[in-house]
TrEMBL record:
This is Acetyl-CoA acetyltransferase. Pfam families: Thiolase_C (PF02803), Thiolase_N (PF00108). Residues 5-257 form the Thiolase N-terminal domain. PROSITE patterns: THIOLASE_2. The keyword Acyltransferase applies. It comes from the Bacteria.
Length: 388
């Protein structure tokens, strides 16, 4: 059985996902192509040997519809013989793409695969694919008694359940900005990015963000209807302790160890273990807790064996609840900043986390890294990579 190894990983800087953002005038196919092209340029691999490009995208409508992976690889100059497929596991889409690529290599179905992702939230606003429709269906609605809620309400319910104060949420968020700003200043992110247009940093990082500044923001998800439905919530989640909307792409080159040797490629890590779980769709974002346990159990590792964590910062409450349950050391979590500062371009975030994790392990001479992603519907992906 072949090992699945990571040869390289690259991302674009992340832009504001709204009109006026640095990538607002770039078609998502072309934005996606930037990461795919960079992967070939950086490794020198002949793209004709790529067996499949597996990509994540959440807003699969409009300019991101019609299997965007196929059009992006052609836009990147890959040969017409290279196939592509687009998957949707919501925010974990490109992390699931990485799992599929690794599984294909381990099974012997692939020698070389690319896992990637894209989201242009400026051109395909969040929720565009739903078009105002009830996508749950009547039977799911009946099962949960009408209790299914938007993610912002889930984030509030998590803060309430784990008794996370507004100050704790804001303190964590300020730390995310401080870490990200420092990482760019110290050049720690330069090696993992391919620049697009004139953007030379992640556009939503706010250097100097303070707890005092964040404390002045209003709750983002409170309205009269939700306040009536949940009278015990004291409304702690704001735009400042939530991830922003973003545009960006990322890509990871995965091969078998035999193919890497044959092609003269030097692996940087191997995909050690992976897991996916389902969890409560009302709390929704807590799946990262059982996913962490499941992937560690599968790997035969303990939390203490992990040198670095990438936990997607959809909301500060999600990361802090995960930390409270796992006991992980926050000094090892998102050490170069997380999505609250860097950004969360939905379909690209899983591959972005993998790119960040790989680089942190190398910078810190670590061995094992774990990334975990909360996803709509009460899902979560977890991945452990081992630096070579």
């Amino acid at each position: 059985m072949s090992a699945a190894v990571i040869v390289d990983a690259v991302r674009t800087p992340l832009a504001k996902g709204k009109p006026g953002g640095a990538y607002a005038d770039i078609h998502p196919v072309d934005l996606h192509a930037a990461a795919l092209r960079a992967l070939v340029d950086r490794t020198g691999i002949d793209p004709v040997v790529i067996d499949d490009v597996i990509s994540g995208a959440v807003g699969q409508v409009g300019e991101q519809a019609g299997n965007t992976a196929r059009w992006a690889l052609l836009a990147a100059g890959y040969p017409e013989s290279v196939p592509g497929v687009t998957v949707d596991r919501q925010c974990g889409s490109s992390q699931q793409a990485l799992h599929f690529a690794a599984q294909g290599v381990i099974a012997g179905a692939y020698d070389v695969a690319v896992a990637s992702g894209v989201e242009s939230m400026s051109r395909i606003p969040i929720g565009s694919q739903f078009q105002g429709k009830d996508f749950f269906g009547p039977q799911v609605g009946a099962r949960y008694g009408g209790g299914l809620v938007p993610q912002g309400i889930s984030a509030e319910l998590i803060a309430q359940k784990w008794d996370l104060s507004r100050a704790q949420l804001d303190e964590y968020s300020a730390m995310s900005h401080e870490r990200a700003a420092r990482a760019w200043k110290d050049g720690l992110l330069d090696s993992q990015v391919t620049f697009v247009n004139d953007l030379r940093t992640d556009e939503t990082i706010r250097p100097g963000t303070s707890v005092e500044t964040l404390a002045g923001l209003r709750p983002a998800f409170r309205n009269d209807d939700w306040a009536a439905a949940y009278p015990t919530i004291d409304w702690r989640v704001t735009a400042g302790n939530s991830s922003p909307v973003n545009d960006g792409s990322a890509a990871v080159l995965v091969t078998s160890d035999e193919a890497a040797a044959r092609l003269g490629l030097k692996p940087r890590a191997r995909v050690h273990s992976f897991a996916v779980v389902g969890d409560d769709p009302i709390l929704m974002l807590t799946g990262i807790i059982p996913a962490t346990k499941k992937v560690l159990d599968r790997a035969g590792l303990s939390l203490g064996d992990i040198d670095a964590f990438e936990v997607n910062e959809a909301f500060a409450s999600v990361v802090l609840a995960w930390q409270a349950e796992t006991g992980a050391d926050l000094a090892k979590v998102n050490v170069n900043g997380g999505a609250i500062a860097i950004g969360h371009p939905l379909g690209a975030s899983g591959a972005r986390l993998a790119t960040s994790l790989l680089n942190v392990l190398e910078q810190q001479d670590g061995r094992f890294g774990l990334q975990v992603m909360c996803e709509a519907g009460g899902l979560a992906n977890a991945t452990i990579i081992e630096r070579i």
